[in-house]
């Protein structure tokens, strides 16, 4: 159980730091004329992430899930996803945010993992939604939130792509 608490605390701390960074970036971007797109949809993304942690914790505690025997495979996948996530975040710099903020007169970022594909941060988070719960045999959380995340990301990516493309047409 100690491994779960260490891992879970790490993930929560990570999210809190990211939200602080995102707020700082938002202030910078908004001051330079950026506009927020899909403000109403953001609350659903936040709710899903919050419910993910509630579900993960509940499944672990209420159903007393053991550490997955495949943890030696799953943990490196999780770590690689974290590297991808932070490579994407650092590549975007002040343009990274948890909200969809469109900066005016700024071309799309094409460095770091963005040289290879358009949404590396979303790929990392999607991987995390599968692998983190599976590390502790929380299969219900992994299944439910992988599906929820896919539905919300499909919508969000479409909105984000249209907003960014409109800025450069």
Please characterize this protein's 3D structure.
It is a single chain. By secondary structure, this protein is mainly α. It has one domain: Four Helix Bundle (Hemerythrin (Met), subunit A), CATH 1.20.120.1630. Helices cover 72% and strands 4% of the residues. The chain has five helices and two strands. The chain has a two-stranded antiparallel sheet with strand order 1-2. Helix 2 runs antiparallel to helix 5, helix 3 packs antiparallel against helix 4 and helix 4 packs antiparallel against helix 5. The termini are far apart. The model has no long low-confidence stretch (mean pLDDT 95).
State Rg.
17 Å
In terms of quaternary structure, the protein is single chain
Helical run tally = 5
Instruction: Determine the mean pLDDT.
Output: 95
Shape: elongated
The unreliable regions are none
How many domains make up the 3D coordinates? 1
The share of residues in extended strands comes to under 5%
Q: What is the N-to-C succession of helices and strands?
A: HEHHEHH
Biggest pleated-sheet summary: 2 strands, antiparallel
Tell me the total number of β-strands: 2
Helical content (DSSP H or I, runs of 4+): over 70%
Largest beta sheet: strand ordering: 1-2
Q: What structural class do you assign from the helix and strand content?
A: mainly alpha
- CATH architectural label: Up-down Bundle
């Amino acid at each position: 159980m100690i491994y779960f608490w260490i891992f879970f605390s790490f993930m929560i701390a990570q999210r809190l730091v990211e939200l602080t960074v995102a707020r700082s970036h938002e202030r910078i971007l908004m001051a330079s004329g950026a506009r927020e797109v899909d403000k109403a949809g953001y609350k659903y993304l936040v709710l899903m992430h919050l419910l993910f942690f509630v579900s993960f914790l509940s499944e672990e505690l209420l159903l007393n899930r053991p550490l997955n025997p495949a943890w030696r495979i799953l943990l490196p996948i999780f770590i690689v996803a974290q590297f991808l996530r932070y490579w994407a975040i650092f590549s975007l710099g002040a343009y990274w945010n948890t909200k969809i903020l469109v900066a005016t007169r700024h071309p799309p970022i094409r460095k770091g993992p963005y040289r290879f594909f358009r949404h590396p941060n979303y790929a990392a988070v999607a991987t995390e939604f599968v692998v983190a719960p599976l590390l502790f045999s929380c299969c219900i959380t992994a299944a439910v939130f992988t599906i929820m995340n896919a539905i919300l990301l499909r919508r969000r990516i479409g909105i984000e792509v249209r907003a960014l493309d409109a800025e450069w047409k």
